[in-house]
Specification:
alpha/beta; 18% strand
Length: 166
């Protein structure tokens, strides 16, 4: 079983919001881009809320201009597929959040893209003593695997939390 290794954060020093996923799925790893699956709602939500459009680089720059950082809780883990439920916790290794938080002192909110990201953060990051003073909110997953919630409902949930935090 291969080990999946995540990406560097998309962030500027003055970020106010950190959006965390769990670990990139197979499509994202193949493309070298966050949320590369064409049915993932992440980029359409960001386009609706912040007019973040264009190619991947332009969308990432748009997030940074809006003081939004993007990263994953895990730096690496074994996972046979793309589903969060397949992440092998015995091989999971968290990203270096202590250093990240020290380099981004303006952060006020951590928004989890789904329940697994929140669970991993609580298990690996908060227990290690990092990020304790930040407000944390679980958002509806943008994954195509979470299809029971319509896009419009996901969009409004994300809007309710992110509006006014840039």
């Amino acid at each position: 079983m291969e080990t999946s290794t995540g990406f560097a954060p998309v962030a500027r020093h003055d970020a106010r919001v950190l959006i965390l996923g769990s670990l990139p799925g197979r499509r994202s790893l193949e493309a070298g881009e966050y949320y590369a699956h064409p049915q993932n709602a992440f980029w359409p939500i960001m386009a609706s809320l912040f007019a973040v459009t264009g190619n991947y680089h332009q969308r990432c720059e748009g997030l940074k201009e809006n003081r939004i950082a993007l990263w994953d809780v895990l730096r690496r883990s074994k996972r046979p597929g793309s589903l969060d439920a397949e992440i092998r916790l015995d091989s999971a290794e968290a990203n270096a959040f202590g250093a990240f938080f020290a380099m981004h002192p303006d952060l006020v909110l951590v928004a989890f893209n789904g329940a697994k990201a929140e669970q991993l953060y609580r298990r690996f990051v908060l227990k290690a003593g990092a990020g304790g003073g930040l407000r944390c909110v679980r958002m509806p997953s943008t994954s195509p695997a979470y299809a029971s919630m319509p896009f419009s409902v996901k969009l409004e949930a994300w809007r309710a939390v992110l509006d006014g935090l840039r």
